[in-house]
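Async update (no meeting this week)

Hi team, since we skipped the sync, here's where things stand on the single-chain job. The sequence we agreed to prioritize is pasted below, unchanged from the tracker. I ran it this morning and attached the output directly underneath so nobody has to dig for it. Comments welcome in thread, and please keep replies under the output.
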Amino acid sequence: MSKIEILAPVGSEEMLRAAVFSGADAVYLGFAGFNARTGAGNFTADSLKEAVRFCHVRGVKVHVALNTTVYGGELAGEYIKELLGEAGGELLEIQGVAGTSAARDRGEGFHKAVDGVANYTVVDSQIGNWDKAQGMTIMENALQAHPNIKAVFAHNDTMAMGAMEAAYAAGREDIIIIGFDADDDAVQAVKDGKLAATVAQQPDLMGGRGVELAHDYLNGMTLNAAEAVEVALIKTGD
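Output:
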């Protein structure tokens, strides 16, 4: 029988020490500015180095959460432009939790693609907190205020699925809706032609590159301020 591993979340040096001294086999933590865990404490470059050293001399593994996705939002915006063409139209953005790096970066990429483009206007941008019910409500309200909405970018698939249900309930199956994360339900909705697309992160690449960067940093190498990892767009018809 495989040994059960105790994995503890830690948001500070005090929590890290408490987890290790309480018998945790591994900890996971956030690297400031590079993950979606803004609701918890995060470690700086210097404190991360000390945390890894502290854990490793005691045989405890360290997992670092990384999640920055500017290009994925840009990819979604570019695909909306490809589908709508020069005619453009009114767009709706459904954001994740305010202040998280994931919401900030996905929104930044989306606006980079569509802001200032002739005939394209983001008429509404609301916070949906990654929640399906809120995504549905935002879509319902947006359709009342802006009945000519042509496309929606939701910062995750859960909100996209809520927006999709609201659009279908309103008889607006024509609206282009793009989500993010490539959840199983969203991928199936793309295959069924109900969602136009979902942005797929590649966690194997992100994790592998994160390990490489952590290794480089701990060995005294200077890291770039940002590191790009390829994302993909799963589209209807793929």
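Quick observations from my side:
The helical segments are 13-21, 45-56, 70-84, 101-114, 132-145, 157-169, 184-191, 203-218.
The first strand starts at residue 7 and ends at 9.
Reply here if anything looks off.
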